[in-house]
Prior knowledge:
Number of strands: 11
Structural class: mainly beta
Helix content: under 10%
Shape: elongated
Mean pLDDT: 97
Low-confidence stretches: none
Largest sheet: 7 strands, mixed
Number of helices: 0
Amino acid sequence: QVQLVESGGGLVQPGGSLRLSCAASGSILSINDMGWYRQAPGKQRELVATITSGGSTVTAYSVKGRFAISRDNAKNTVYLQMNSLQPDDTAVYYCNADIQSIGSKDNYWGRGTQVTVSS
């Protein structure tokens, strides 16, 4: 069974930084696109950034220049480096991945990690 587990969230002051990690585990043959999404209270889930297996990235305009997505294919892990955090970045951050396992290819979500930006 494939799982995505996020870590690295927490409380940070405005202007601070956090680094999120998401590790995929289970019967994995290959991982295609990986990404980060976020959902603030009362709002819809939105794309933050995605990265292909080859390293091509897409980043939301709202976080461009502040957030950077990367991945370690050998570790089946995707990262989100978040700098210059602002209160509007407060949300639950979810990891997402397209994973090929034995017999199937599916899209998976992690359970999320809370990021709170507050003084």
